[in-house]
Automatic annotation (TrEMBL):
Domain spans labelled Helix-turn-helix: 2-50
Keyword flag Transmembrane helix: no
Cited NCBIfam families: excise (TIGR01764)
Top-level lineage group: Bacteria
Transmembrane segments: none
Stretches of the chain forming a coiled coil according to its record: 37-64
Keyword Magnesium: no
Key words, A-Z: Coiled coil
Annotated protein name in UniProt: Helix-turn-helix domain-containing protein
Length: 76
């Protein structure tokens, strides 16, 4: 499904001007139909899924306990 710049801004909760900048910097793929830019919504879904996966992996990594160092000896 394709979205207009306005619909994309609402979908991502970003200002329209920022979406336009991202399009002109080729950071968002868009098709120009002669009147307006159309943006494929699935590119954001894939990105958001990857971000959620990365957050989950980071949370798992941070929740692992730090292993004891076998070289440390408490000899006083």
């Amino acid at each position: 499904m394709y979205l207009t710049i306005t619909e994309t801004a609402e979908y991502l909760s970003l200002p329209e001007s920022y979406i336009e900048v991202l399009i002109h910097e080729n950071k968002i793929r868009a098709v120009h139909d002669g009147e307006q830019y159309l943006i494929y919504r699935e590119q954001f879904n894939q990105h958001l899924e990857q971000m959620e996966k990365a957050k989950k992996q980071l949370a798992e990594y941070l929740s692992e306990p730090i292993p004891e160092d076998p070289d440390v000896k408490d000899e006083d």
